[in-house]
Predict the 3D structure of the following.
Amino acid sequence: MQIDTRSKPASVGIWAVALAAALGSAGSSTKAAGGPPKLADLLAGNTLSVVTWVPRSAASSAGGALSRFMLQAYLRQDGSASIRVWDVARNAFTKPVERNWTVSGSRLCLELPNPAPARICAEVHSWGPRIAGVGTAPYVMLDGDLRPGNAILGTH
């Protein structure tokens, strides 16, 4: 399913509800008896597109305390991921590389390629078509969305 971002806000809202229902039903077979689906089961098989904010390197001459990184990660069931990061200097995504991802409870961790930090972890507090979270050690904020299938390669 592709969402037309040029749609009117009301129709985007309808698509968001439909996508949330699709993600919810896709994870229903992995629910514990009577419990909600596990975060890892909801994330697997989806492309995570997020913006992260992390502490700026001490060696950086840029202003501000946080650096922003945009990334996409196709999260596979086996804990592997195809990940690419937006390279501001080139104004393009990096070539996708294979890395790993893990979930422990609601804590999502991603191993990332350059120019992003090597690893980020965040406590995910909302997910569905939208995903958001915050982590410490180091500090990280995460905000983005989930799409079924591999949006990096354009396959479902």
